[in-house]
Amino acid sequence: MGVEGKERSRELETGAQVLSGNMGKTIQRLRKAYNLSLSELAEQSGVAKSIISQIERNETNPTLATIWRLSQALDVSIERVLASGDEEPFIEKSSKADTPILVSEDGKMRLAIIGWLKTIEWLQWYDVQSEPGGVLDSDSHQRGSVECLSVLEGEFEVEVGGVVQQAKAGESLRYRCDRPHSVRCVGDKPGRATMVCILKAAVMD
């Protein structure tokens, strides 16, 4: 192999490593956004837990079939998983089909993950849509975490530690989410809100 051939080979290898590194971070952020453990993602995707762990740590270059199975399990397009973060434009557009959706256990409340995946470990932002009576029960987040629910349509109710408060369109509720909490769509009309969760915030008194 000539000098030019060796240089090209190194460029391709470096490019593959960068792509794999960004892909691993993307998969990890999506997994955490869904609050999935490695074992749960392995079960849903059919990809071995050890392989997923290696991908997230940038220790292996997965096959296209593996990437496809992970993207299906995480409900995003394969293009989103393969996107190189270093080459992203300042203005980034996500399609509706490429927006991950969380669904409450009762199936009545849907949370679209509209925040930037790169900030998912400390800032989460959701578009919430609910049928009347929809309930979202959540476990505790990290100590000091705070959540803000801004109601756009309908009426919602938040319960934390036995304390209940309601908010209508144009109103917001801010509350500690470092303990079990519930969000309900009350009344007889559908509701819509934005929810922002700030993780690892300063501990509140």
TrEMBL record:
PROSITE patterns: HTH_CROC1. CDD domains: cupin_XRE_C, HTH_XRE. Gene3D superfamilies: Jelly Rolls, lambda repressor-like DNA-binding domains. InterPro entries: Cro/C1-type_HTH, Cupin_2, Lambda_DNA-bd_dom_sf, RmlC-like_jellyroll, RmlC_Cupin_sf, TransReg_Diox_bact_type. It comes from Microvirga splendida. Pfam families: Cupin_2 (PF07883), HTH_3 (PF01381). This is Helix-turn-helix transcriptional regulator. Keywords: DNA-binding, Transcription, Transcription regulation. Residues 27-81 form the HTH cro/C1-type domain. The keyword Transcription regulation applies.
